[in-house]
Write a structure and sequence with these properties.
Layout lengths: L9 H8 L4 H6 L1 H4 L5 H19 L4 H15 L9
Amino acid sequence: MTNEMVYTTVIDELLITIPELKPLYAENTYIWFDDYLPYVVFGLVVVPTMEELLKYDWQSPVLKRIFDFIEIMMQSKGQVHIYV
């Protein structure tokens, strides 16, 4: 993952970094078909996963990778965090 994360590839980078999110992502693809927006994916996939892990498995390595990803995204020179 580079320090220049961009809006158009942030979801691909997310799913590569955290493959455990792929099943929930696939489950929700009917909603966005080919035109998915990162903020929608974060709202329907990332946030519910974080809520569940925080509630039932707060020491999960998956949760740590999600937080690490968000931290990198927030520091990105591509300013993806403004749009997600």
